[in-house]
Amino acid sequence: MKLPGIVTPLIAFVAYAIAQATPNYTSPLDVDIYNPSQLFNVSGPWSLMSRAGNTLYISGIRGFYPSNTTLAPVGRERVLQAFLNMKMLAELGGSDLTSCLRLQVYVTDMYRWRPLVNQVQEELWKDVAPSYPPRTILEVQRLNDDDIVEVEGTFYLGD
């Protein structure tokens, strides 16, 4: 399997981001809100992730390259990049794919994109297969910027 050429610079970028992981805000109920601008900026009034207790919640993530906020090419590469972005945020928040509690995936064409989502998930979780996290995949009429896929996850942080 060949990963996109962006992966090596992305690893260095993630290493920097992990070193900088601090909440942007902590609520009175001790919920940390993260919007790490060193990854990519959100395009609206939401944050990329939050932590409540030992649970990390990652918002819907698309297939942007963090280095330049352009979308990966349509198809498998975009689906993979969306999952890699979620993985990167999980690691930034102190978790990893093996601690994923639940996935929710939105696609604009179930028959076209679900097989690619399955391939990417099998690839990324190959070390723990067949213990995949619970997943809901939904076909939606439209995603932001007419994108094809968006993935969100809930992760366990440990005790």
Summarize the structure.
The protein has 159 residues and is an alpha+beta fold. It has three helices and seven strands; from the N terminus they run αββββαβαββ.
Keywords:
single chain; 159 residues; alpha+beta; 60s Ribosomal Protein L30, Chain: A; 7-stranded mixed β-sheet; 3 helices; 23% strand; RutC-like_sf
Explain this structure to me?
By secondary structure, the chain is α+β, with helices and mostly antiparallel strands. 28% of the residues lie in helices and 23% in strands. The protein contains 3 helices and 7 strands. Helix 2 (76-92) packs across helix 3. The termini are far apart.
Topology:
Layout: H1 7-19, E1 25-26, E2 32-34, E3 49-52, E4 55-61, H2 76-92, E5 100-107, H3 110-124, E6 135-139, E7 149-156
Parallel strand pairs: 5-6
Antiparallel strand pairs: 1-2, 2-3, 3-4, 4-7, 5-7
Radius of gyration: 15 Å
Helix and strand sequence: HEEEEHEHEE
Task: Give the distance, in angstroms, between the N- and C-terminal Cα atoms.
Answer: 35 Å
Spatial sequence of strands, sheet with the most strands? 1-2-3-4-7-5-6
Largest sheet composition: 7 strands, mixed
State the helicity in percent bands: 25-40%
Low-confidence parts lasting 5 or more residues at pLDDT below 50? 12-20
Q: What is the name of the CATH superfamily?
A: RutC-like
Question: Which whole number gives the mean pLDDT?
Answer: 87
**CATH-scheme architecture:** 2-Layer Sandwich
Overall geometry = globular
Domain count, please report it: 1
Based on secondary structure, the structural category is alpha+beta
Proportion of residues in extended strands: 15-25%
Pfam families: Ribonuc_L-PSP
Signal peptide: 1-19
Keywords: Signal
